[in-house]
């Protein structure tokens, strides 16, 4: 006989669950987006439909479906599914899970699937605990991380897993999820609310590829609108600040810096200014940007425009002295100059060739006296004045 008190408790718990969690898809066909991973004949759907899972790492920004796909796997495959947040579970508990998984295989042959959210929060030594059990198939690991597993997950663990890189959702995908939220009984389907088209467009665009951010904003809009009619103005109030996907301590920090340098290298002024703005608005240290720009002036412009080094040095000094927010103007001027300048890597190539000779070829002995005539002849050509 059903426990009425337990059912009532479950209803109350469901009532306070965030909308994004209530709407989480239970089946693969309900997942929106990520067609490069979930499209017809792609690997992951085949693994799930055949119930032939290997260990998996989902890597991608927040709100792209990592936890959702883990939930789908839990619903659509056989096996004991256990879910943990890596920030809240210790080595002792993981060892206990592995021991129980061994017993489960011996007693019933049932697999154990362990989902570790934020696996990058596990230290290298903590991750090592999983290696043998993953390699032997005692545990099927599903890891989720917002950071590049090449930097944050043990190489041995990555090599034993299939890595699926999830990407930010398209505006149309997020809009589809918002419309679903208004119709699904788990969402607002049983309520008398309307969402204007321009409000949907705003939320979908402002979410910036993060489905959770868009759905959370829709929930805030509903909770703050007694009339049940969500307009564009209400939508803008519900999501005032665009959430920038940037972490100064993670791999995204270096990804942005790389995009910034590559844009300047390609003489793409607008692209370089965009990446500059993205870093500054995300709280990046402007001194880090000035330092990278100074390196670029030597490495990529060099002799093609020696004044670039002077500009970079002056900008770095100004950045140190005045700081944010005013120094963004200085950096903007520098970035426009460096992007527009002619490029030459002659000086860079010359010193790299000379360094290679010093490290890998026969050592040339410097003379004891300092007479110019006694200097040994360096026959290698690292830089040709005539050809420059």
Count of helices?
A: 19
Shape, principal axes of CA atoms: flat
CATH architecture call of the largest domain:
3-Layer(aba) Sandwich
The CATH homologous superfamily of the largest domain corresponds to P-loop containing nucleotide triphosphate hydrolases
Assigned CATH class of the largest domain:
Alpha Beta
User: Strand arrangement, largest sheet?
Assistant: 2-3-4-1-5
The strand count comes to 7
Major pleated sheet: 5 strands, parallel
The helicity comes to: 40-55%
CATH topology of the largest domain: Rossmann fold
Structural class based on helices, strands and sheet pairing: alpha/beta
Rg value: 28 Å
* Average pLDDT score: 84
Q: What's the domain count?
A: 4
Order of helices and strands: HHHHEHEHEHEHHEHEHHEHHHHHHH
**In angstroms, what separates the terminal alpha carbons?**
89 Å
What is the strand content?
5-15%
As residue ranges, the low-confidence spans are none
